[in-house]
Amino acid sequence: MSDWATAEDSEWEFGIQNKMMGQINTMRFGEKYVNDGGAIVLSTGILAQYPFKGSSIVTTVNAAVEAAVKSAAVEVERIRFNAVSPGWVAETMVAMGMDPEPGMPAADVHNTTLI
Question: Which portions of this protein are annotated as coiled-coil regions (predicted)?
């Protein structure tokens, strides 16, 4: 992850086009396929609430997805939109060279985010 000062435009564009627009387009285009009273549930991430140094792009796009969910929930009445924001997965933290202590094992995350 690049920090605020060193992130290139291409890194911002990648985050925006993939994470942000991928999730927003799931709502935009998926809404017509969901039965009345159904729901679309997206995943954001804990960095939207608790950013750390070097997380500016991920923090920003996750927060944008959360804002889009709130906006869609107000504008589209026939279905629900929700977002879950899981914490760090310990195995991901290890793969990123981070201390996995504050993370949660993948199996535990799976069990806590089922809807």
Answer: none
